[in-house]
Amino acid sequence: MSEDASHRTQYDHRLVRMFSLAVGIVFVLVGIAGFIPGITEGVGEMTFAGPDSDAFLFGVFAVSILHNLVHLLFGVAGVAAAARATASRGYLIGGGGVYLLLWIYGVGTHDDSAANFVPLNSADDWLHLGLGLGMIGLGVLATAVERRRNVYPEPPEEREARS
Fold it and tell me: Which of 80, 96, 97, 98 is nearest to 24 (CA)?
């Protein structure tokens, strides 16, 4: 593939890649913030996992060490996915689906239950619904824009570059 064609492909898919990068960075920042006193209330009461963690990000969202690590890893995955349009689209739509499943899990799990190992509270549940819908929406929006520009699915040059 010529350097010019490679640049055009990268440019044409910049929206989905930018969305993946932005979402990934936000998750990394939230994961870090979950360990910072002042941003997270009760950092000293944070447990590795489970409903006994008494730490709350921004004083609202229940967090644990596991919860913060998941945010960090999910964020790193988004940043890494931003290198390729296909990976970015998968991250946004697939990750949004994961967050919708997490919303269903959270709504169906009592806050004090041992099954609430992440932990989650009702604020987390509604945030997960919004994140799931938002991430899927960004993936679909970027795909729609690319289709209008006739660059989705990826041109053969990009598919060959991945092989």
Answer: 80
Quick one: how many helices (H) and strands (E) in the chain?
6, 3
Q: Which residue spans within the chain are E strands per DSSP?
A: 40-41, 55-57, 61-63
Answer yes or no: are the C-beta atoms of 57 and 35 closer than 8 Å. no
DSSP 42-85: TGGG--SSSTT--EEETTTEEE-HHHHHHHHHHHHHHHHHTTSH
Q: What are phi and psi of 104, to 5 degrees?
A: -60, -45
Strand partners, 55: 63
3-class DSSP assignment, residue 38: coil
Give per-residue pLDDT as tens, 104-119. 998 988 777 777 777 7
pTM above 0.90, yes or no: no
| pLDDT given at position 155 | 54
Q: State CA 12 to chain mean position distance.
A: 23
Q: For residue 79, give both structure tokens.
A: 């940043």
The residues spanned by each domain of the chain are 3-162
